């Protein structure tokens, strides 16, 4: 487990980076790096270090922490606002019809929205006033909410999304009976609420994820339940 000092150091190091390059190396939504969805994802998720290397493009959650100032002020804020405005004004949600990609982009935007609702403590420079933080978050919140709503899938589209677990069984070798009803794997919950309470309690990345702890004993399901 990484210690809190190491996490803090990593956060500081990733704060001292430039705004993303115009054509990101990671292109999750289209082969064209200039596609609006790719540029929007890069502005929110990708950091470019001094040596030109990109970080964050392959992460599920953005590189944003409680004390992050990224996206709340400066060039990164202006870039995000400009791309979100372009997305809303040009109805960027219509550029891609693929339901899976639409769900992915909605989740990406939602993760940033959740982070905006959290605490933005002044752990590192630049020190922002509460008014500056609120103004930066407010400017991002409205276009983010509009884009999230427009990307929403119908119930039929949601029901037809591919089975991620089935794909992981094939690609990553996960047990086929991992979530089977009455199977050997038992979901270990808490008597006082869900697992990973600290993650779920954070108003930030990770809040829109599901955390499960599954146990399988050699003696079988009944032994695990007992």
Summarize this entry quickly.
This protein has 226 residues and is mostly helical. It has helices spanning 4-15, 36-45, 74-89, 99-116, 130-150, 155-159, 164-172, 197-201, 221-225; strands at residues 47-48, 54-55, 186-187, 214-215. It has 2 domains: 4-158, no CATH class; 164-225, no CATH class.
Describe the structure.
The structure is a single chain. This protein has 226 residues and is mainly α. It folds into two domains: 4-158, no CATH class; 164-225, no CATH class. It has nine helices and four strands. The strands form two sheets. Strands 1-2 form a two-stranded antiparallel ribbon. The chain has a two-stranded antiparallel ribbon with strand order 3-4. The longest helix has 21 residues, at 130-150. The chain is globular.
Total of domains: 2
Main beta-sheet strand count, sense and barrel state: 2 strands, antiparallel
The class by helix and strand makeup works out as mainly alpha
What fraction strand? under 5%
Helix and strand pattern: HHEEHHHHHEHEH
Features:
about 230 residues; mainly alpha; 2 domains; two-stranded antiparallel sheet; about 45% helix; globular
């Amino acid at each position: 487990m990484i210690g809190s000092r190491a996490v803090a150091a990593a956060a500081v190091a990733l704060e001292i980076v430039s705004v993303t390059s115009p054509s990101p190396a990671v292109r999750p939504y289209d082969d064209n790096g200039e596609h609006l969805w790719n540029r929007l994802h890069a502005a929110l998720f990708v950091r470019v270090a001094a040596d030109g290397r990109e970080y964050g493009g392959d992460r599920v959650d953005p590189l944003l922490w409680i004390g992050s100032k990224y996206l709340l002020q400066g060039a990164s804020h202006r870039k995000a606002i400009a791309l979100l405005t372009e997305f809303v004004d040009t109805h960027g949600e219509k550029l891609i019809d693929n339901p899976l990609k639409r769900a992915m982009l909605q989740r990406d935007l939602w993760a940033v929205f959740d982070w905006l609702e959290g605490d933005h403590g002044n752990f590192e420079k630049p020190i922002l006033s509460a008014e500056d933080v609120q103004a930066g978050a407010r400017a991002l919140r409205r276009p983010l909410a509009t884009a999230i709503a427009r990307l929403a899938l119908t119930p039929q589209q949601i029901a037809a999304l591919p089975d991620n677990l089935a794909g992981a069984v094939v690609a990553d070798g996960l047990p086929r009976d991992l979530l089977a009803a009455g199977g050997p794997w038992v979901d270990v919950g808490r008597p006082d609420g869900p697992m990973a309470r600290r993650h779920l309690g954070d108003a930030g990345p990770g809040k829109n994820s599901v955390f499960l702890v599954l146990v399988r004993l050699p003696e079988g399901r009944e032994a695990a339940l007992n």
